[in-house]
Amino acid sequence: MLEGWPPPIFDPAGPFAGSITTLAWVLLAMAAAVFAVVMAALWIALFGNDRLKARLGGDWVIWAGGIAFPVVVLSLLLFYGLSLTRNLSVAPGADEMRVRVTGEMWWWRVAYLDENGGEVVLDANELHIPVGEPVALELESNDVIHSFWVPRLSGKLDMVPGRRNVMRIQADKPGVYGGQCAEYCGGPHALMGFVVVAHRPRDFAALIQAWQSPPAPAQSAGTARGERLFFSAGCAACHRIEGTRANGLAGPDLTHVGSRRTLGAGILPNNRGTMMGWIGDAQAIKPGNRMPPYHALSGDDLKALAIFLEMQK
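== Cytochrome aa3 subunit 2 ==
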């Protein structure tokens, strides 16, 4: 089973998810109370004595139960909910960590930003954050409406083409937290997963610093052949690898693909075997995604490509 999956929805691991969970329990409790009152009224209407039925049919029931009660209760719940979630979507502050996450069909584009909104590090399908610090996510979409949701770290928010929405997440302890697109966005929508990895602050700083350093040439047995195949098979037309001439932007950035926990947007563990299978026939694994199958590649070719990609860290 993939680490962090399935993501539980009532087990918050941070303050923003905690406020959402509290609101959910309050709403569920209120819904249960209203359901109980309605069932009691139904029982009286069906089986009660004449005196109770007469009282239930009075005008006061309509005014009190049909108008006053819902207006008061729904207004109180509205203000209570706004007070719990008021900090989730305000604009990022100057000293906040910012990450732009863009929904694609069917994966996630990730860009770590500097204080001016410039892209510092590019990645895909995996988000790394420091423990104990709020992270402002700038959520966008390049095609259709998606919805970003990591249940243990925050609520969910739509990603709308032409609009930038802001949402905050925070983890209280290190770990791996699963996420999922929560808005139907087309064929493989159910296979559009996501992983958030929370690090201790010093580990997170070291990771970002390493990613900002010029990548070392990837070398191992089979690497050179895999690199030649990567370019001759046309992979560079859709994928980017920092420090090489691969600069395609249509598919996920592969600069750090060797260090990711998953492949195919959170659906497969990342190892040599799954990488070979994904390159050879991604359509058989995730039907409808935009990665074409490469049936012409031999097993040795797929292995060489997988070795080259697993060295990209």
